[in-house]
Every structure is written in C-alpha cells, then in structure tokens.
Amino acid sequence: MQIQTTPLILSFGVADPVGATGIQADLATFAAFGCHGLSVITGMLIGDTTRVEDWDEIDADTVVDQARVLLEDMPVAAFKVGALTSIEQASAIAEVISDYPDVPLVLDPFLSNMPDSGLLDDDMLAAIRQILAPQATVMLLSQVELARMAETWRDGGSGDMLVQDAAELTGMGCLYVLATGTGSAGGGDGAAMANTLFGADGVIDTYQYPHLAGRFVGAGSTMSAAIAALLAQGLPPLEAVRAAQDFTHGALSHAQRFGMGKLVPNKLFRAAPFTR
C-alpha cells in the first residue's frame, strides 16, 4: 500500500457543466500542479460557454456535512472558497475553516459569468468581507469587484480608491489581496494588462502581462486555483501569486473554444499530448 504524499486541497464551489469555472476547473488546475482536489458543492450551474442561465443552491447543512466528513478522514494542505449561493453557506464555511487556522485559504467568491459576478446582494458581500476575508491568505478579485464590495463599507469617495479599498480587507486580517485588471498600457501587439498585489503595508507588487485577444470564461478561477495549489505545495504566498499568474497567462494563451461562446483556459497546456 502506498502512503499518500500528494497534497490535498479542499475546494468549496459551484459545479459548472462546462468545466470552465467552479469545482471542475479547480480539480483540473490542482492536478496540473500535482495536487489532488477534494470538493464541496455549493451550487449547480445551468449554462454553457455563452452564459449561465440559472443555478440551484445547496443548503448550508449539506455543505457542512460534505466538508466535515472529508476533513475528519483526510488532512488538507489548502482551502479554496469559490462562489457561494447564500449567506448561510458563507457563515457555515467560515466556521468550518476557522477550525484549521494553519491551513492557507484562497478566497475567490466572484463568478464572472454570472450577473453581477454572481454576488447576490450587499448582505452577501458584507458577510464575505466580515467572516471569510479575515481568514484568507490570498483574496482574488478584479478592480471592479473590489469597488463593488467597497460599496458595503464606504459612501462615495473620490480619486483612486483602490489602495484604500484593499487596505480595508488587509486591515481586517486578510494577508494579501490580489486585484486583477488594475491597469493597461500600450495598444495593438504591445498592449499589456496589470494585476496588483496588496499587503498590510499597501502595494507589494504590480505584474504586467501581454494582453490576449478574445473573451474568456474562467480566468479568475484558474488563477485562484493555481495559487491554492502552489500554497499546498509549500510555496510562500508571494512566490505562489507570481507563479499562478504565469500559469494562468499560459492557460489563456492556449485557450480552447468548446462551443459558440467564450474561450476556456487550457489548464493542461503543459501536459504532453496523447499519441497512439
């Protein structure tokens, strides 16, 4: 009998029939980094590569039961929390994760292919900010999503609020905030997109990558899953964040069009192709 040495990652998220986001995408990304994914389903999407038409919620008690049974049986090296479908889920998952304070947590609660990024209302945003963000090692969200969340604690504001909004989250206990889409430069073949990492003392680093043409679904899910996998493999957070962005850019560069809608990142672009 072989003793298990592969890092285990427990992911909370929705089941996506396309496999572009949510649990299915997480499992593929974890595997690309030599990790094994355990899954707790928070909801089931109904949709295709064009759009998500609806989703079905999983009740919070079932979410907790899924997690507790797994955690009583196996040690995990990292948590990832993706899209949630109720405040009760957010509260229940926060309670479960609080029992494992030494296990890194990657928080990525926004779902880009849902209306309003899949966030239900201000109460849901506030719950994520108050009870999940303080436990996060890395929280991933776009600049637009960060501004949307910031509406739950500030009224208005002028100028560039990005630094102040990130500071609100790090001040509550979140170790790092990775904001995507924080800038662009150039045009044509020389265009670049930027992501910015924030810590307790403000901006830590800004990462620029060549702009890729096309409409994608699942870029954020790929990046957050890659961060979780790299943390599970023992990389320090700053190294994990950089390497995950490099991986995501590669997956997007090799994206595939499965249907008539958006391009899906190829999480297995590094794997050798099958030959007969």
Description:
By secondary structure, the protein is of the alpha/beta class. It is 35% helix and 24% strand. It has 8 helices and 9 strands. It starts with 7 loop residues before the first strand and ends in a 23-residue tail after the last helix.
Layout of helices and strands, plus pairs?
Blueprint: E1 8-15, H1 22-32, E2 36-47, E3 52-57, H2 60-73, E4 78-81, H3 87-98, E5 105-107, H4 122-132, E6 138-142, H5 143-150, H6 162-171, E7 176-185, E8 192-199, E9 202-210, H7 219-232, H8 237-253
Parallel strand pairs: 1-2, 1-4, 4-5, 5-6, 6-7
Antiparallel strand pairs: 2-3, 7-8, 8-9
User: Could you say how many structural domains there are in total?
Assistant: 1
State the strand order across the main sheet: 3-2-1-4-5-6-7-8-9
Rg over CA atoms, rounded to whole Å, is 18 Å
In the CATH hierarchy, the architecture is 3-Layer(aba) Sandwich
Assign the CATH class.
Alpha Beta
Category from helices, strands and their pairing: alpha/beta
- How many separate helices? 8
- Number-wise, the strands total 9
N- and C-termini, Cα separation: 31 Å
Short précis:
Helix content is 35%, strand content 24%. It contains 8 helices and 9 strands. The chain has a 9-stranded mixed beta sheet with strand order 3-2-1-4-5-6-7-8-9, with helices on both faces.
